Amino acid sequence: MRQLRKHSAPSPLDELSDAQLYRMIREKHGQAERAFRELYARLSGNVHAYCRCLAWRRDESDDLFQEAFARLYEGALQGRDVQNVAGYVIKIARNLYLNMQRDRKPTVMIEDNTLTVQDVPHERTEMLDLIHMAMELLSEDHREAFFLREFSDLPYEEIAEIMNTSNVNVRIRVTRARERIRKILQPYIAEFEQES
Question: Residue 139: which CATH number?
Fold first, then answer.
């Protein structure tokens, strides 16, 4: 006997823009908490990946991520007007990271060997490790510009605003990052293609 799956009805919040959801939080609407959860669901993956791009240590990136969303919520409750919510939370995360770098004190890193690894094909894991390694070799500015363009798919103008630099400078950083990553990965890609 075939089981029927229950389909949850789409929420009316699904059809609202990020700015409309943010406005509901700001105006302390009756569904403000649900609006925040919807915003979080939409933006969290990209913001978390961005935090990992900035701070390679998982504990630091997780702290940045959590604090960025806490500040987003606090800003809404304080009545801050925001139209581009995704760009705003990215900018919050970036400013938090810059503050962390400024206030950084020497620390000792302790490795956590209790992490579990999901079953991912070896080739894919190896390629992800190579890309991660290549990005680590980029300067911080090039890595951030590259990530915001290639992974967050933000327009150059928005990246320039987030990074407090010119549009031309962002384009140069992204181009140089692409060239550097291509150069770093070229021997590995050639070897991978020969094995296939």
Answer: 1.10.10.10
